[in-house]
């Protein structure tokens, strides 16, 4: 894929960017910033969460005659409930995105505003919303529960080096002696 040397940076909210792929020049388009409050509210409503937190996107969009490629990061924070302790906390998550869409194979994104849009438009807010909805952690854990002491929550932190012992009554100890 060869892109022209056209390079544009959008300074507004990424969720406000609508690309008409028929008239858009080949080149690189960069968008970085926080989603507007209305779009974030719509995404929270779709997720079944109360409004709060925020979302931001840093995306590079390369437009060629064959289609578009998107690469970047979407970060968001939501008030969530820990799946282990049921404690409420602010959960921050990052999604790395990398997609390529050919002109004949553009994604059918669900519209956040439920309006009909022209067939050759790419609405960045709908793409960001889909990535968040697909990427949100269904079982968030409060950061304080990720490393638990003995007896708490019924198990040990098996990744802790203090808990790993070269023990002969472990099931694979005999195999280790063979190597």
Number of strands: 7
* Helical amount: 10-25%
Radius of gyration based on Cα positions: 22 Å
The unreliable regions are 153-166
**Biggest sheet descriptor:** 5 strands, mixed
**Arithmetic mean of pLDDT:** 80
The strands making up the biggest β-sheet line up spatially as 1-3-4-5-6
User: What's the SSE pattern?
Assistant: EEEHEEEEHH
Number of alpha- plus pi-helical segments: 3
Strand content: 25-35%
Distance N to C terminus:
49 Å
The helix/strand class is alpha+beta
Tell me, briefly, the overall form: extended
Descriptive report:
The protein is built from three helices and seven strands, in the order βββαββββαα. The protein has helices at 37-47, 124-135, 173-178, and strands spanning 7-10, 18-20, 27-34, 54-64, 67-81, 88-102, 121-123. The strands form two sheets. The protein has a five-stranded mixed sheet with strand order 1-3-4-5-6, with helices on one face. A two-stranded antiparallel sheet has the order 2-7. A hairpin with a 2-residue loop joins β4 (54-64) and β5. α1 (37-47) packs parallel to α2 (124-135). The chain starts with 6 loop residues before the first strand and ends with a helix. Mean pLDDT is 80; it is low at 153-166.
Structure summarized in a few sentences:
The chain is of the alpha+beta class and 179 residues long.
């Amino acid at each position: 894929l060869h892109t022209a040397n056209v390079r544009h940076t959008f300074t507004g909210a990424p969720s406000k960017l609508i690309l008409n792929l028929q008239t858009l020049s080949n080149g690189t388009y960069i968008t970085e910033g926080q989603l507007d409050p209305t779009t974030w509210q719509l995404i929270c409503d779709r997720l079944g969460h109360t409004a709060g937190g925020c979302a931001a996107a840093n995306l590079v969009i390369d437009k060629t005659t064959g289609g578009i490629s998107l690469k970047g990061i979407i970060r968001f924070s939501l008030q969530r409930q820990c799946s282990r302790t049921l404690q409420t906390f602010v959960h921050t998550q990052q999604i790395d995105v990398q997609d390529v869409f050919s002109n004949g194979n553009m994604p059918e994104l669900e519209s956040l505003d439920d309006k009909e849009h022209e067939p050759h438009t790419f609405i960045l807010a709908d793409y960001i919303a889909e990535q968040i909805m697909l990427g949100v952690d269904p079982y968030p854990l409060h950061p304080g529960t990720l490393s638990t002491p003995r007896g708490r929550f019924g198990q040990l932190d098996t990744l802790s080096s203090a808990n790993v012992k070269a023990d002969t009554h472990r099931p694979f100890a005999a195999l280790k002696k063979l190597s």
